[in-house]
Design a protein that fits this description.
The protein has four helices and 25 strands. By secondary structure, it is mostly beta strands. It folds into two domains: 266 residues, no CATH class; 62 residues, no CATH class. A hairpin with a 4-residue loop joins strand 6 and strand 7. The protein is elongated and about 105 Å long.
Length: 360
Amino acid sequence: MKTLTIHSQDSCYVINQGQMDNDLQSKTAKSMTLEQGEYSIKIEKGWYSYSSGPEKGEPLVTLWIYGHDNAAFVNLNTGLEVGTTWTTLNGFNDVLALRIKPNQKATVCALFLDIDACQSRGGEVEISFTQIPSSVQKRLTIDSKKNCWKLNQNQLKSIRRHNSNFIDLEPGEYQIKVKEGNISYWQQQDEKFKLEPWAMLWVNGGKFITKYPEQGAENTVSESWCSLNGYQDKLNLKVLEKTTLFGLFFDTVKEDNQGQVVLAIEEVALSKPNQPQPAPPQEKPSQPVGNMSWPSIINDMAIWEMRDGKDIVCLTPVRTIVRREEEITLIRKVRKVEEIEASPACPINTNQISPPQQEP
């Protein structure tokens, strides 16, 4: 098992308060303010690609969430009450659930993260905010050009430490989760709310699939952002070509940060995508003769399809359909049952009938 250690100061990418308020929040991100209630947030359609090549990319978005006036909200995915957090949605099956307390508000800022001087194909995604249980829904469209925050490449390199918060992964299947974590954005005496153990992961440099097997080969990418939030969260990563994993935090000031988060990276055999099973053949339901008119019976092709090449079908005065077999059973409307000897022709008092003629 490998580990990734993300220190709250040494691994912190600083976005100063002015940039956070005026640029990232107001000018870059698309925002949705949520009031009292429970909400589910997910990607409905779209994709984003960091590559300038032909790869399609993946359904992906980064979310920065904060409570108004330092008010706490509940991340229902982790069960933890927090005042701010960063997270990502990777794939159409990834859903974030939040609870906003009475008389409180929280804002969700949705955006893409990219590196300056890098050219990408971009894309866009549409995310939904559904209030539970009312099913009232609102949507935001996140655009690759208008809603993309560019990170400084040199600043990222300055906080990257090999075999600490930055490691290489060889091809294989991995499960990544928070092993231990205790971080704070401020000195203990000034603590406004608890922080959930969380980390952002920048994955790049090879070929891989995030959230495998929920996402399949069609979402193989060479770069992505992923998050881990809380001890129950797990990231399944299928690495196809050697890939690097870089863990970091975002904050406006890092000097008062305390603690670290340690991620466990275990090579495992991940479950494979569910293969669609062929549907079992459906038997055509039988219908009682007494509830059908004879024209509908005679013209019902299902009756004729039931017989083989040597069968004959006979019409009797008691409305009985007869199939030629070794023995023939007649079922009358009065539920009287009798057996008769089969013969190459219809029994006495019956008339042989033929299938309806099909138009060419």
